[in-house]
Amino acid sequence: MKVTLSWLREFAPDIDGDPVELSETLSALGLTVEDMTLIGDIVDGVVLAKVLDLRPHPAADKIQLVDVDAGDGQARQVCCGAFNMAVGDLIPFATPGTVMPNGLKIQERKMRGEVSAGMCCSGGELGLSDDHEGILVLNDRVVPDAELGMDVAAAIGAEPDVLWDLEVNANRPDAMSVAGVARDLAAALGVDFSFGDYRVADSSAADEDVNELLNVEILDPTLCGRFVATVLRGVTVGTSPQWLADRLRLAGMRPLNSIVDISNYVMLELGQPNHTFDLATIPNGHLRVRRAVPGETLTTLDGLERDLIANDGVITNESDEIVSLAGVMGGATTEISEQTTDVLLEMAWWDPPTISRTVKRLNLVSEASSRFRRGADWGENIDRSMQRFIQLASELGITAVGGFVDVAGDTPDRTPLAVRSAKINGLLGTELSAAEMAGYLSSIGFGADVVVSDSGTEDLAVTIPTWRWDTETETDVAEEVARLHGYENIARTVPKGELPGGLTDYQVRRRLVRQVLVGCGCDETFPMPFLAPGDLLQAGLADNGVTLSNPLVAEQSVLRTSLLPGQLKAIAYNQSHRNADVRFFEIDHVYLPPPADQLLPDEREHLAVALAGEEAPQAVAVLDLLERELGLPNVVLRSASPPGLHATRSAEVIVAGKARGVVGEIDPVVLDNYGVAGPVAWLELDLGELLSGPRLSRKYSPVSKYPSSDIDLAFEVPDEVTAAAVESSLRKAGQALLTEIELFDVYRGEAMGAGTRSLAYRLRFQAHDRTLTDTEVADVRQACIDAVTSHDGVSLRG
Amino acid sequence: MIETLRQTAVEAKARLAEVEDLDELAELDVEFLGKKSAVTLAKRQLGSLDPDERRTAGREVNEIRAEIETAVESARERLAQAARVLRIEAERLDLTEFRGKARRGSLHLVTQSRDRLEDVFVGMGFTVAEGPEVESAWYNFEALNIPEWHPARGSFDTIFVDLGEPEEVMLRSHTSPVQIRTMENQKPPIYIVAPGRTFRTDTADATHLPAFNQIEGLVVDRGITMGDLAGTIDEFVHTFFGGDVKSRLRPSYFPFTEPSAEFDISRADGTWLELGGCGMVHPNVLRNCGIDPDEWQGFAFGFGIDRLAVMRHELDDIRELVNNDVRFLRQF
Asked: Do residues A92 and A120 make contact, with C-beta atoms less than 8 angstroms apart?
């Protein structure tokens, strides 16, 4: 919402002060100042000049030569890129030496061989308007005693003004108008606020009775709270007076023609959107308000045919043909044109949720609908806006017939609301009296009477004004009190919560996982969770990712079910930037398709480790570190060929009997699909399950004081028998005496034959209560050998 | 005899002073102190002397032997020292050759920022709550007092998911659904922060990402006031940004808080930077979670995590946070 200081002052003439301080006041009211511009503050050196001659530039098409008289009676030649002025026009002229608002210093120079001794200025260049294209022609704007060579500001009688661009929140329909902003600002500054009297004293058409001309019915009172209309006679469509056009431009609207401009002006000034119909297109002046029937259509002003649904509000003619999409956009058939002489002027109040739904469905955001959907004013502001429209039109010779048609539907309840002053103070942390609260509220037009409750406390009976549709409850009233009291005047306290703060066990252990992986030299990555269609298939995974309904781009239209595709992309990206051997990890969500009878996806937190340029054993080593650090119980690798992974170099990770992830190497085919140079070692675990599952207790076990015996054993083991199986046999046989097992050598080679390898173990035997005898050691050694060689094809190596 | 022995001792000390390796030292040891050495022979001959002479001569022989022994030890120490010097010299390393070989990885900037925020709030008595990123309309909107027709819904630029009815399931557009999930499952008093990823239909550019990270705070307790909200924000700002950074609240609007505010922090140049939104939990939100707004009051606040990382490290392109370029990741 853009407002100027001068416009605000029409409602509160005493608003004054330093523009920066006024900006602070506006922001402190919740009318956040997004931008502030000082206007009419024209830089020195820009003078009134007259165009003496125009002629083509001999060497350039896009600029012309202009001779101007800047007050000294001499013709000065300038080169100018605009072509909108004529000989005799008065224009703003920047003389050499002028520093323009954008910092450009005007100097005499040559353009394509022609002298240019100054610059003809556009309104935009001077900060007088948004127009940056044409030169600002001042013929109609100069003051009577203006002379060539005068400062332009003096020549046009420009008053310094301030333009604010305000961010208006959705609960402030009132602040979608100049008057509403003025009301708030006046209250904060403690100055008077009032509306003007817009009634037109006499009107040549006033003898006609509007009820003879119009007939309005509200068939659905939940749709329309109030419908006010009248007829304007003698309409001609022309251009608006300069002052009105200037205000519209500053407010960010382009002046179009006199009727549209007045319509917009009234909406900006008073916040009431309005609509004009060509009366000739409305048979018998008969309008009806109802909701649409599914299947109905309307061709709106923009020429598009709109399919309507039962929610949409419409205005129909007496034949029940839709002529307007209520509160959103008029119909094409009833639009006013150059032939229009009589206009039906309508101002109404529409149910905000209804308008909101239609606007959203048809994506038809407009200045009018954005006011209706926040909740316009159904009270006397409609009458005032009608009067203002008629007054402005009367200056163009347009006259209104006598009176308004005024039909009522359902409007919000405005019975006074009981407000407990203790609740307000308790919510805000203030100690305001009921009278102080009433003072704040009445300063912005709320009715606020102090009432003494049965228990003797002073409370409030608050009448919420009709321009605050969104304001309904005691809490809403509390916000108004806080706003006017000033958020910064509320004393700051810190709640005395009695609960200790802290991270959950899960969160603490997740941080531990990160530290372990960082300690392994892994960098934490953080890809976005979106995939492109086909990414999962390319990664060898099931193509069952949940898809997005309105993705920004197709490459981000699927939610990942695994961290694998994202890691592959990250590695490929880095390899393409000559960083081949990266070690990455990621802890983040994956989204599995919802199980039956569940609406939301099965969302899980996964851990992935990707070691580019490394083989499966490195991933196993990382798993070992995590197992140790997290105290994971009974971690077993089960032979498997998990999807996306290398068929003979991968396994499922089983923790306490449950599958919790995969470890190994990524399938070379998958690596090729992603353009990644392999090998890449891979570990992906369901971290959520791991960290919330069981863990080993770390109970003290005494250190033996007796000597240990080390025995080396090497076995010839076929590939079908895993090292884990051999180790398991060793442990069973060695029992408590076997305190350590180290697989210190694995040998595959010609000496071993195909499909078999040598596994060499160092076993340490030790007892807690004695030194083991040679016989004891020999016996347990033999038991270990017997246990391992009981596997098919396993033999002790000599 | 003693005279001859003194001569021998002089000779021994001279030769021991020049000995250059341990073998030679061993030979000299035998030659001057061994069974056939002059000193040993002289000691044997002492028995043939009369008792007086024997006592005098014996003392002298022992002194001479001790002199030679000392000389041998000193030679041995000299050789050992030389050997140590040689060894140390032989083992010389240029340690600068070995710099930069071992590397600890880096935690992601967002993790670092999130951890710092969590730690500050934990210190202020908060626990950390988390929730799903794919949410239903109830948690993302309705329970938060944003009905289906509300204009605020449009302003969230929500990314919807092809599950359920149209616009029924979505990527959460803020972390506020965690407020609802917490209040549904936990009776007050509640003091939580909820960090996590949120989503908007923003095209990725230097200052926007469609997936980004926020942190949300929620306090529900007896007698919580807007003064508590302002004080909590202030305490956080001092702890996180430093004691000289100030905070302020400005009126704003969110459907799930009333009164609502934006909060700003002061910059060094005296201007203010908008950091996030906050307010007193709307009574409808409390009611939606089965909490009586006349018994309990609360406040909530939220702001971006990524932006803090961007500010702190002066990133000029927020997309660096998701590009996973090691040249970026390893800087922090």
From this structure: yes
The reply to whether the predicted model has a pTM over 0.90 is no
Closest CA in chain A for residue B248? A488
Residues in chain B closer than 8 A to A556 (CB atoms)? 210
Cβ of A600 and B169 within 8 Å?
yes
- In three-state secondary structure terms, A14 is coil
Whether the CA torsion A784, A786, A791, A795 is positive or negative: it is positive
CB contact under 8 A, A549 and B330: no
CB contact under 8 A, A547 and B161: yes
Q: How far is B54 from chain A (nearest CA, A)?
A: 56
User: Do residue A550 and residue B201 have CB atoms under 8 angstroms apart?
Assistant: yes
Residue with tokens 């430093």: B242
Q: What is the pLDDT along chain B (332 residues), one digit of tens a residue?
A: 778 888 888 988 999 899 988 899 999 999 988 898 888 888 888 888 888 888 888 888 889 889 999 999 999 999 999 999 999 999 999 999 989 888 899 999 999 999 999 999 999 999 999 999 999 999 999 999 999 888 888 778 999 999 999 999 999 999 999 999 999 999 999 999 999 999 999 999 999 999 999 999 999 999 999 999 999 999 999 999 988 999 999 999 999 999 999 999 999 998 899 999 999 999 999 999 999 999 999 999 999 999 999 998 999 999 999 999 999 999 99
* CA pair distance A594, A690, nearest whole angstrom: 21
- Write down the ipTM of this complex: 0.87
For an interface test with A, the pick among B153, B171, B181, B225 (most A C-beta atoms closer than 10 Å) comes out as B225
Decide if B79 touches A, using CB distance below 8 A. no
Whose structure tokens read 């150059």? A338
Whether the Cβ atoms of residue A39 and residue A62 lie closer than 8 Å to each other: no
A224: closest CA of chain B, how far (Å): 17
The C-alpha atoms of residue B313 and residue A523 are separated, in whole angstroms, by 18
3-state SS record for B21-38: CHHHHHHHHHHHHCCCCH
